[in-house]
Design goal:
This protein has about 120 residues and is mainly alpha-helical. The protein has helices spanning about 5-45, 50-55, 75-80, 90-115, and strands spanning about 55-60, 65-70. A two-stranded antiparallel ribbon has the order 1-2. α1 (about 5-45) packs antiparallel against α4 (about 90-115). The chain is elongated.
């Protein structure tokens, strides 16, 4: 037979409540922050000729989704290169960096809520 102390049960319930609050508000905040940072970093590292590529980079946070985009029709050619032009990567490396930061921040929020 297992006996539970009421203080431990209350403590566990508070921690579950803290995790639920991360799910509702914290995830949205972290996703928005990650999208803004990724978009900023992409714009900073995008090559500039006319400024059109930089101006067409943005992000769109949704319910539990985040879209970071480059709407310039030639952005893929700049990122990957062509047979006439060498690649000038500006998009994917910043996305990877942003995803790692997002995961790190979410892990930190979860650990802080569980303490």
């Amino acid at each position: 037979m297992i006996k539970l102390n009421q203080n431990d049960v209350n403590k566990l319930q508070r921690k579950f409540h803290a995790l639920k609050s991360i799910d509702q508000s914290g995830l949205k905040k972290e996703m928005y922050t990650a999208g803004a940072l990724m978009s900023r970093d992409i714009k900073r590292s995008a090559p500039v000729d006319t400024g059109n590529l930089r101006n067409n980079v943005g992000f769109e946070p949704k319910e539990n989704d985040l879209t970071v985009f480059s709407n310039a029709p030639y952005s893929g050619f700049v990122e990957e290169g062509t047979r006439f032009q060498k690649a000038q990567p500006f998009f994917y490396r910043n996305i990877e960096k942003g995803i790692k930061l997002l995961v790190k921040n979410l892990e930190y929020r979860i650990k802080r809520a569980i303490r």
